[in-house]
Amino acid sequence: MKHPVEALLRPPVELWSAASAAACASVCLAAPSALFMTPGVAWSAAAIFAALAWTRARQGVRVLRYQRRLRFLPRYRLAADRIPWSPTRLFLGRGFRWTQIHAQRLRDTLRPAARRYLEPSRLEAWARRHEPAWERGSATRWIARLTRADAWWNPLRPPPPVGGLSQIHGVETDEQDVWLPLEERNGHTLVLGTTRVGKTRLAEILVTQDIRRGDVVIVFDPKGDADLMLRVHAEAKRADRPCYLFHLGYPEISARYNAIGNFERVTEVATRIANQLPSEGNSAAFKEFAWRFVNIIARALVDLGRRPDYHQIRRHINDIEPLFVEYARHALGRLAAAGEIGGDWAARVAAIQDAINDRSLPHNFKGRGREAIALFNFIQEAGAYDPVLEGLAGAFKYDRTYYDKIVSSVGPLMEKLTTGRIAELISPDYLDATDPRPIIDWRAIIRMRAVVYVGLDALTDATVAAAVGNSMFADLVSVAGHIYKHGVASGLPDVGADDGPVRICLHADEFNELIGDEFIPLVNKAGGAGFQVTAYTQTWSDVEARVGSRAKAGQIAGNFNTLIMLRVRELATAEMLTSQLPEVEIQTLMQVSGATDSSTPGSGVDFTSRNEDRISVTRAPLLTPNEIMSLPKGQAFALVEGGRLWKLRMPLPEASDDPHMPEDVAAMASEMRKAYRTGEDWWRDDAGDALLARGGRAK
Predict the structure, then answer these.
(1) Residues 298-349: tens digit of each pLDDT
(2) pLDDT of residue 667
(3) Overall domain count for the chain
(4) 347 near 355, Cβ under 8 Å?
């Protein structure tokens, strides 16, 4: 901008001078004698006039183009296979760097004189006003179809149904592709936007690039949106990547997952279950009791060589006696082999059992099995010590009524997690050879560089969705700790070594439904293990309400270095972006006119007048919350790389048939049944052999 005032909202007066210069050039060429010019002078003058006409015409067209873009942005569509991607950068859309010039231009559109350049023409307004009547008439219906046609030849073409203020993006006529360096994604990305403004479309664009780049992609979708699931499946198929779907709403096509079967420390099992229980007020004490007893059961199952799952935890929480008997015999046999107790312990237990008098039993042993009572008494007499056995014995000696009360808080949760067909998904039977559905193991998924879609069907049962989602987050945190210590390969052939470090791109849609104590360390500490989290939600108040603490919500927000904000409807959410931006100088043109009577008789001057244009400078925000709350659908502001603000818009999906997109969930289910392989043994099957034979490159 070369002048103090840019003044683009005005008639394009440059076109008049361009037309005059073009006419002069024509006269010089057609009739040089009329201007008393020699041919050489005429050609030179014509060239000068033509250059002036070209320059002024370009200036006038720039003004017209700018005014046109304030009302109508050119369509921006991309087919799925044409979405750009890069091995070092992430494509966000098309846009421009938002600076003081754009803030100035946007303020200029608020002046009353600029209203005519923002509103539709009279003819367009007339057509929009009469279209409802034309649609009702059989003879005039074709007129409405013509005026509504979304085609270049239609001068009455309606604007796209995206709402908002088109001038927010129209203040810049020179767009470019906006890319984010992949190094910035280690700091995680937060996407905020209200319902139906383009969050899912942005997720599709980002997920598509991550899949094509060869990264591990994990998509969490609490709603379980079928369209997003189909898109993930289609993109994985297009890129020839292994894809696993876990969906609580479609158990027939879903992979299986043991939410508490994989851990670094056995205490994680109890933590994952207890964290789903309320912890306010009196519930906190019951939560601690529940954690203790679940931890005792989990330790016993692991020592017995079993993998914990919800079915086993529920069974032993309801009746701990069978587990106590089984583990007691297992532990006593081990202690006898080590010489800590006599080898005749079984006979001594049998003798104690025969000597039991039911009438003389303590109240807390009423109704208990004689074998369990005999084992308990023998353990007390022999002084045998085993930490797990001690915990089981302590739980066994409680009065049954008292025990049921202190573990009552975990009962309803376990009932929900082990009821119906969902129980088959989250408590899989590893020995069932007739079930072709694979079992997800995050370490194997990362080694394979696979794609995983997780649909939690939260609209059907939010409790189960939250429990499974948080367990997955906790499992991923445990995997991140394992990667920190042992690397991705962990002693197995490193199939991804040729592709560089493994990046785990985790996309969490509606993450306020998933967030909990498990999610915080994932964004806090897992970046060094290759995790790159992209979280999507509607307002930041949703997160605050979920975690129950504004300080904890602020702790979470502080871990997102990249912020992408679409249209939001909450002022506080919009201010998360605007409060981080500086103020800039905004110029205001003020017109001043006045007249002054002359006070000198006989001077011949009755009055003096003056007209002035004054330019004043004020400080104003680079961006206001109102402008964010007025964004059209599919548009956003992105604060990236430590404070760079970009205005961008996302490509709309092109209406073309995607050969890789299944028509519906049933078609996808048929495809998956043919391609299902068990994920936990991937390195042993034919596909794993073929993968290693190709030099360890995962596609």
Answers:
(1) 999 999 999 999 999 999 998 899 999 999 999 999 998 888 888 889 999 9
(2) 67
(3) 3
(4) no
Gyration radius of the chain's alpha carbons? 36
Angstrom distances, CA of residue 64 to CA of 10, 104, 439, 496: 9, 18, 61, 54
Show Cβ contacts of residue 174 under 8 Å, excluding neighbours closer than 6 positions.
96
For residues 21 and 133, membership in a common domain is answered with no
CA 258 – CA 418 distance, rounded (Å): 12
Distance CA(441)–CA(472), nearest Å, equals 10
pLDDT digits (tens, 9 = 90+) for 457-515: 888 888 888 888 888 888 898 888 888 888 887 666 655 544 557 899 999 998 888 88
CA-based nearest residue to 495, from 689, 681, 217 = 689
Q: What H or E segment, with its residue span, contains residue 235?
A: helix 226-238
Q: Report the percentage of the chain scoring pLDDT > 70.
A: 92
pLDDT of residue 627: 95
What percent of the chain is modeled with pLDDT above 90? 43
Among 402, 417, 432, the domain boundary falls at 417
Residue 682: what pLDDT? Answer: 40
Amino acid at 542: D
Task: Tell me if 485 sits within 8 A of 528, measured CB to CB.
Answer: no
263's tokens: 């851990």
- What tokens were used for 254? 């879903």
Cα distance between residue 462 and residue 453, in whole Å: 18
Of 369, 402, 417, the position where a domain reaches its end is: 417
Residues 301 and 365 in one domain: yes
Q: What is the DSSP string of 571-621?
A: HHHHHHHHTTSPEEEEEEEEEEEEEEE---TTSS--EEEEEEEEEEEEEEE
Q: CA 442 to CA 438: how far, in whole Å?
A: 12
Whether 61 and 139 share a structural domain: no
Six-digit token pair at 587?
A: 């110029």
Is 594 inside a domain boundary? no
Same-domain pairing of 288 and 403: yes
At residue 699 the predicted structure's pLDDT band, cuts being 50, 70 and 90, is very low
What is d(CA 523, CA 515) in angstroms, rounded to the nearest whole number?
A: 11
- Considering the domain architecture, whether residues 49 and 134 belong to the same structural domain is answered as no
Classify residue 291: in a domain, yes or no: yes
Residue-level pLDDT at 61: 95
Sign of CA dihedral 269, 273, 279, 284: negative
Q: Are residues 59 and 143 in the same domain?
A: no
Task: Give the length of the chain.
Answer: 699
Residue 629 lies in a domain: no
**133 is a domain residue:** yes
* Confidence at 673, pLDDT banded by 50, 70, 90: low
Could you report the per-residue pLDDT of 447-460, keeping only the tens digit for each?
Answer: 889 999 999 888 88
Does one domain contain both 271 and 413?
yes
Query: Domain span at residue 47?
Result: 14-71
**Torsional sign, CA 23, 26, 30, 31:** positive
If asked whether residues 46 and 154 sit together in one domain, one would say no
Distance CA 536, CA 545 (A): 16
Q: Mean pLDDT throughout 533-543?
A: 93
- Mention every residue, 6+ apart, whose C-beta is less than 8 A from residue 23: none
Q: Pick from 435, 439, 441, 533: which is nearest to 482 by CA? A: 441
Please report which helix (H) or strand (E) contains residue 618, including its range.
strand 607-621
Token match 């906006």: residue? 178
